[in-house]
């Protein structure tokens, strides 16, 4: 009886052991399947990460994962890059000339009365660019600039053709000197006067339909125009200087200096009279840093009835303002007759500047 009980107990123990083994096997199987599934997911994730379309970016910034795109946006050969809106910031002016525009308020009031009589000027501050937001406000500020008090008193102003140079000791123009003159229209009086002074003179005008050549007085004429881009196929608009279709070769000032072997050389006098193209050119000169090589600057600005468009006036005013802040101080101005009617608005003027921040060693970063 005792033996039978022992046998029964042993049988029971064997069954319990077998049952436990089955449970452990089932649990192991479940665990194995779970781990396998996780491995598959990890592999998928790794594979997905390998499909990031990159040029070895850091932290995948600005890029999209190809498999996450809608089917109609997927590509197989070219990378897909998210369009990122980046604010455009002008390079900081290393040294800034403080310009007081308080007197411009009278011009703002006059232009308000003419073009937007109900406008409120209480939030407009002529010393804060951010408050000048309407075309007529910008036009008033530009008008003020051409009529505002001279900011540099030149003690020795000398006529050169229909322009002037300042011969004060700090800015004296004498050989060896380099002069660039953009915009001739067959009037070489300024260029010839600078040649007689002993300077190397380069004259530029693509509208005259003349080939590049060395003139009798040893100055050089270039069938080339000044622009904010380099192109051999510029089509100018028709105006008083262009009455038939023409194709012009245009270069930035930086490119002109490089092509003529004047890279990083001082331009003692730079004259620009290019019938409305000056705005984009000045902006480009600021961006490329060539203004630091200019000792004296002569500019004729233009606001024609149809060009530049009035929507651009605020930006043009900011360009003009930045030029003054960079240290170009007027020693002479010459307003032209103006038309203050919105559909026929026209304002032009001449400004002659010395670069008060000019440094002969060209280490200045404007």
UniProtKB/TrEMBL annotation:
The UniProt record lists the Methyltransferase domain at 144-331
Q: Which InterPro entries does the record cross-reference, listed alphabetically?
A: Methyltranfer_dom, METTL24, SAM-dependent_MTases_sf
Q: Name one Pfam family in it.
A: Methyltransf_22
Under SUPFAM superfamilies, the record lists: S-adenosyl-L-methionine-dependent methyltransferases (SSF53335)
Question: Which PANTHER family does this entry report, sorted A to Z?
Answer: METHYLTRANSFERASE-LIKE PROTEIN 24, METHYLTRANSFERASE-LIKE PROTEIN 24-RELATED
Per its record, how is this protein called by name? Methyltransferase domain-containing protein
The source organism is Biomphalaria glabrata (Bloodfluke planorb)
Q: According to the entry, what is the taxonomic lineage of the organism?
A: Eukaryota, Metazoa, Spiralia, Lophotrochozoa, Mollusca
């Amino acid at each position: 009886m005792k033996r039978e009980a022992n046998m029964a107990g042993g049988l029971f123990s064997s069954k319990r052991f077998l049952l436990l083994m089955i449970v452990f096997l089932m649990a192991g199987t479940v665990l194995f399947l779970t781990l396998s599934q996780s491995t598959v997911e990890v592999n998928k994730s790794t594979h997905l990460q390998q499909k990031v379309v990159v040029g070895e970016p850091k932290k995948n910034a600005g890029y999209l994962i190809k498999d996450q795109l809608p089917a109609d946006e997927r590509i197989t050969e070219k990378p897909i890059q998210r369009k990122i809106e980046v604010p455009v910031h002008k390079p900081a002016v290393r040294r800034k000339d403080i310009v007081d525009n308080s007197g411009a308020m009278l011009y703002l009031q006059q232009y308000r009365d003419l073009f937007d009589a109900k406008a409120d000027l209480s939030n407009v501050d002529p010393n804060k660019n951010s408050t000048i937001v309407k075309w007529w406000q910008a036009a008033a500020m530009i008008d003020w600039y051409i009529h505002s008090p001279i900011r540099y008193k030149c003690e020795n102003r000398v006529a050169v053709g229909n322009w002037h140079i300042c011969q004060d000791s700090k800015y004296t123009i004498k050989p060896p000197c380099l002069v660039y003159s953009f915009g001739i229209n067959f009037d070489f009086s300024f260029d010839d006067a600078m040649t007689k002074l002993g300077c190397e003179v380069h004259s530029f005008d693509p509208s005259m339909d003349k080939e590049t050549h060395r003139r009798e007085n040893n100055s050089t004429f270039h069938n080339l125009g000044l622009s904010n881009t380099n192109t051999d196929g510029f089509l100018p608009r028709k105006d008083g200087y262009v009455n038939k279709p023409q194709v012009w070769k245009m270069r930035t000032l930086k490119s002109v200096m490089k092509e003529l072997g004047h890279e990083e050389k001082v331009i003692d006098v730079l004259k620009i009279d290019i019938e409305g193209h000056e705005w984009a050119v000045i902006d480009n000169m600021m961006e490329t840093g060539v203004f630091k090589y200019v000792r004296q600057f002569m500019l004729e600005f233009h606001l024609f009835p149809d060009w530049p468009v009035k929507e651009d006036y605020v930006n043009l005013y900011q360009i003009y303002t930045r030029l003054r802040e960079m240290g170009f101080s007027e020693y002479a101005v010459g307003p032209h007759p103006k038309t203050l009617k919105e559909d026929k608005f026209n304002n032009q003027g001449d400004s002659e500047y010395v670069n008060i921040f000019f440094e002969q060693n060209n280490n200045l970063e404007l």
